[in-house]
Amino acid sequence: MPSLLSVRHPLASPTEQLRTLARTGAPAFDAVLESRGVAPLETRAIEVLQVNVGKLCNQTCGHCHVDAGPDRRESMTHETAEQVVELLTRHPIPTLDITGGAPELSPEFRFLVEAGRRLGRRVIDRCNLTVLLLPSQDGLVPFLAEHRVDIVASLPSFRASGTDTQRGEGVFAKSVAALRRLNDAGYGTGRGLVVDLVHNPVGAFLPGTQASLERDYRRELRDRHGVVFDRLLTIANMPISRFLEFLERTANTGRYMDLLLRTFNPAAAAGVMCRTHLSVGWDGALYDCDFNQMLELPVDPGGPATLRALLERGGLSRRVRTDRHCLGCTAGAGSSCGGALE
Ligand code: SF4
Ligand code: SF4
């Protein structure tokens, strides 16, 4: 499957994605907050610096909110990576969360990991698992283990059919092989090397209960495949980019937005990740989250818009920019990069 951008699909345009969501008649997200008595989203202290190093990926998954793939060329420069490190040096943000694309394919990945760990920060690698098997990534698993990097890895289903439907033929088998390599290096085995898995629904519905899905994943992966992991995180599919294209193709956009609206959860709204995250794009632009980044909705115009401006002027607190896609974070048990919010 090629990226939307490479086939010039109209939904490669963030403006067209936002227009498509508006056409469903779903109310503006801030209006939903107001009608449910929830205050507009403001940031608290920043706990996570999430850095998207680029859109290159060895996969082209059907639900990808980045529209990543082997044909994407956007990639962070060393100068921008140095600015990330400078920001971490000046601000005691506890966690550096590195994402992509497949972040490991960025020439800056190992530089950022080493710098983050040297500064004593928790470093997270958002890993698609199959990248660990690429011949070009020989030595990556020992590198991650040596630097005690936490791995958060997507595995939509513990069944081959579910995972392969969403992520491509043969991806489940490769993901299990990669998990086995991680287990052999000590990940997921209770020795302090953490590998969490991420479940998202294979279709236009919300995830099941995180705790019960975790039990199912644990049993099936251990008994059928002999692999183990730490925690399962459940996330909802965001109605943007390639998942939005799927919704449109299957005439499900209106129904999905209605589901997100009907299941709006004020408690989840209070805990959305944008309140404690700052998201950095491959080019150094700042966003409230990775979803806003892909929709090209930069941070509130009153504050610094780039890493360089932030380093010069300071100012980490801001009002969060929202749009209708935000309903994907507040439905049901809530959804964030850290899994369910309740
Ligand atoms: S979902 Fe992840 S692994 Fe799949 S194409 Fe997107 S960035 Fe790559
Ligand atoms: S999509 Fe981003 S800005 Fe909107 S609620 Fe979710 S984390 Fe916050």
Question: Which tags fit this structure?
Answer:
single chain; 342 residues; alpha/beta; 8-stranded mixed β-sheet; globular; binds iron/sulfur cluster
Topology:
Layout: H1 14-23, H2 29-35, E1 48-52, H3 78-90, E2 95-99, H4 109-118, E3 122-127, H5 140-146, E4 150-154, H6 160-167, H7 171-184, E5 195-199, H8 210-225, E6 232-234, H9 241-249, H10 253-262, H11 266-270, E7 277-280, E8 286-287, H12 290-294, H13 307-313, H14 327-330
Parallel strand pairs: 1-2, 1-7, 2-3, 3-4, 4-5, 5-6
Antiparallel strand pairs: 7-8
Helix pairs in contact: 3-4, 3-13
Bound molecules: iron/sulfur cluster (2 copies).
One iron/sulfur cluster is lined by residues 272-274, 288-289, 291-292, 320, 322, 325-326, 329.
List the uncertain runs: none
Order of adjacent strands in the largest pleated sheet: 6-5-4-3-2-1-7-8
- What is the alpha-carbon Rg in Å? 19 Å
Label the overall shape.
globular
Element string (H = helix, E = strand):
HHEHEHEHEHHEHEHHHEEHHH
Question: Which range best describes the helical content: under 10%, 10-25%, 25-40%, 40-55%, 55-70% or over 70%?
Answer: 25-40%
**How many runs of DSSP E, i.e. beta strands?**
8
Quickly give the structural class.
alpha/beta
Number of helices: 14
Which whole number gives the mean pLDDT?
95
What ligands does this structure carry? iron/sulfur cluster
